[in-house]
Amino acid sequence: MKKKCKVVFLLLFLSISIAFAQQKTVTGTVSDQSGVPLIGVNIVVKGTTNGTQTDFDGKYSINVNEGQILAFTYVGLKSVEITVASSNTINVTMEEDAAALEEVVVIGYGTQSKKLLTDNVAKIDASQIEGISTPSFQGAIVGKAAGVQITQVNGKVEGGVKTIIRGLSSVSASQEPLYIIDGIEMNNRNTSSIGANLNPLLSLNPNDVASIDILKDASATAIYGAKGTNGVILITTKRGKLGASKVSVDFSTTVGEPTNKRDWLNAAQYVELLRESAFNSGFFADQAASDAWVDGRLPRYQGDEDWRNVDTDWQEEAFQNSITKDVNVSVSGGNEKTTSYISGAYNDTEGIVRGNNLKRYSLRTNLDHKVSNKFDVGLNANYSSTIIDRISGDNSFTTPLQAIAQVPTSPVYLSNGDPNDGTLYANFLLQDKHSFRKTSVRRILSKVFGDYQFLPSLSFRTEFGYDYLSQTVDRNTGRLAPFQSTNGQTFASNNGTEIISTNNYFTFDHTFGELSDLNVVAGMTYTRLKNRAISVTGDGFPTDDFKSVSSAATISAGTGTFTNWAQVSYFARATYSYDNKYLLKASLRNDASSRFGADQRNGYFPAASAGWIISEEDFLKGSNVVSNLKLRASWGINGNTPVANFGSLGLYGGTAYDGVSGIAFTQIENPNLKWEETAQTDIGIDFGFLNNRISGEIDYYVKKTNDLIFNERIPFEAGAPGHAILKNVGNLENKGFEFVLNTTNIQTDNLTWKTSFNIATNKNKVTNLPNGADLITGRNILREGEPINAFYMAEYAGVNSNTGDAEYYLNTENPDGSLNKTKTNDFSQAQRIIMGNPNPDIIGGLSSNLNYKTFDFSFTFQGQWGASLYNNAGQYQETGFGNGLDNQDVYIFKNRWQNPGDITNVPQARLFRNNGHSASSRYLQDADFIRLRNITLGYSLPESVLEKIGFSKVRVYLAGLNLITITDYRGYDPESSNDDANTNTNVGNTFYSAPPAKTFTLGVNLTF
């Protein structure tokens, strides 16, 4: 027995000895394709729990037996498996996994695999907006997402930006998408105090953006309920990564000029046309008499020079070459416990319009800390200060662009150097010299969060967000400024908006068996907005050196308002996939808002979607051609709320009568006021061929909005203030196609060329109005069966070739229902008809990226077709002095009717006679265009040089913005529009609106 025990013990000892003899320590370094060591790579002995991670130098050490397999994994890179042989050193190079990089998209309250997504979400990474010099991040994503129209109102540095996703879904409620930054709702409310819009998202530094996910269909946006009708834009900022600290510094200088300058009459042309126009007017007996009138009139505007010796190009005085200096510095890194991203930025922009400048300072800190294996906490904090030298709105005589109306025989300055105060209209340079309008925008945007993992499949996240937007205005008008009737005036205001919000939700994510995956999110969110605005105006100052209100002789005006609004919501979403090819998703949100009466306070917004990944079926899974083919369909309901916080309530306010205070009725109540509701259906196909070298999406959507919120007119006898009541009346519809095509044209070791093309159609129409009656506002109309805000005006018929009269079509209705196309020179007889659409039928974009060794090159084209734009200033600029003495477009001079038989669309010039200057389709033009939006050429130093100088990246780049615009539009810019703050009226109108800037940027990116 003892012998047997000894034999067993000996055999056991020998087997253990052999095992230990086979086991050894393997070391090595893991790096990426560029040779940079990778920190935190997971290394596991396959089939065991034995594993380790690479250190800060990308090095590792692990005990392993020969013949075992080492598995190397890292997020965003292809996994590597290596069988251990005799060598004790194994160095590994890991390649990018393109599929993994594109795999995850941000959705409401979570993320999801792009492959398993049943929604329509457009994703834009930081690499796609690098090197694009623009004051706002919205400007950097123009043309990069199908169905997303982004338009800068004009060329002012602070100019408002309109973002429309899949067409307009409201008339009087918000038309802008919901912006969410790192999970927290951003305030996108315009609080400008001068009429002209100011972009509230200027406070966001584009260099801090890591990715932008645009939720377009209802399945994606319904989780945001009453705020998702116009789409949702999710902004994710950069965060620290595990590893040694990295410092990145970006410097750039940008120079710019207007994208377009128009041709205006010089002095000789102006005098010639004025003499001709005066003679044609019939006011004078002969040419000599009319010439004498001209010779006697022009000296009024000559200042202290002889007008015959003056030839001023006022356009050159209004515009200037711009220059922008941009500096961005960031530090990121961290260890297993804590990672951080800290950045600071400075932007100094001198605009293309004289007197318009901007300075922005911003600081951001993003921290992530692992308290334990189950508990994570973090902080996002951003502070920005933006100081803007603003100019008057477009509809103001003192705005620089209205200087183009000045007489070219007027000198800019007097002989003593002062601006000429005897011009036809107020000389804007007097405003520039004797007044200022400074706006300061300060913003605090922050979030703290905690994430606790109760179980491997169950976690809870709580977020608290704070958004404070403060805008102060200091406006001083000196006694010598235009239109100043007192000894100076000062205006000061402060508008502060505070949003407090919290999100609290559970996430359950579990795999049942090997085929079923279920993800459930459920929680609540609360948002409260408070706004306080005050202003004061003081008149009369001892000298212009005193500029504060406290020095005023009289406090002539003052206002103060306070408002708030709150909403509490509950939401749930379930996503299920079976065998990674059959996909289902459903969500439901309940919103309760203080903006509605008690009976209509709650709104329910459901959504559902499904998908089938056909390429995962056996009959396609092994295909060498089809690499991805997915069908998806979605349906859901979103809501929208009125702009007014108390729109459903009957309101009273304080007033004064004969010096006695009192109370006045200010708003009639409507307890039945409820949400606008938009039901959207989307059917889509995702495809990929040849290992996804060719990929894309095709979508068809229908959006139907019911219960549009209007101020409906009511009889005078009802005694309602404004003779209107806020009601739910009217429906509208948007439908269209979207097509996206991404191609990898060339993929070699040294050369990569990729292209992305998108195009989208949208057909918009009003489907129901109260009693079928038209609603007309200015030159826009809401009519059943027609596009929203369609142009409604008299139809210009050209010029009578015998008389030079401007003519219009009668457009009265014939007995058979057709329109009478008889021409008349009497404008009052012409009936108004629908003449155009301010909304484009088609928008598109084309982006291309090429990398050759250490060179990179990229560009983006954008375009739109089918929209019209009304030049509201045309009645002054293109009338041949029929409506004043404003300088005229050279087009009028070259094409005017002069003799019987002339065939032209420009009528005879007649001084102070209405010959074609009434509002008609004469001033309505097609706004189709194709624009080279941006282009960038960069060069990065090779690794061999970087190692010697101690940098990990040095890149120099040259970029351009708005370099080429191809259009038949004769105005300044086919995208420009009047910057009146009320964007829901006079839609599609431009009025002395500045074009955007054409810029060239030289910059350098440094990382060490």
TrEMBL record:
SUPFAM superfamilies: Carboxypeptidase regulatory domain-like, Porins. This is TonB-dependent receptor. It is found in: Cell outer membrane. Residues 118-232 form the TonB-dependent receptor plug domain. Belongs to the TonB-dependent receptor family. The keyword Transmembrane helix does not apply. Pfam families: CarbopepD_reg_2, Plug, TonB_dep_Rec_b-barrel. Residues 423-763 form the TonB-dependent receptor-like beta-barrel domain. Residues 1-21 form the signal peptide. Keywords: Cell outer membrane, Membrane, Receptor, Signal, TonB box, Transmembrane, Transmembrane beta strand, Transport. Its main location: membrane. InterPro entries: Beta-barrel_TonB (IPR000531), Beta-barrel_TonB_sf (IPR036942), CarboxyPept-like_regulatory (IPR008969), Plug_dom (IPR012910), Plug_dom_sf (IPR037066), TonB-dep_OMP_SusC/RagA (IPR023996), TonB-dep_OMP_SusC/RagA_CS (IPR023997), TonB-dep_rcpt-like (IPR039426). One of its GO terms (cellular component) is cell outer membrane. It is a multi-pass membrane protein.
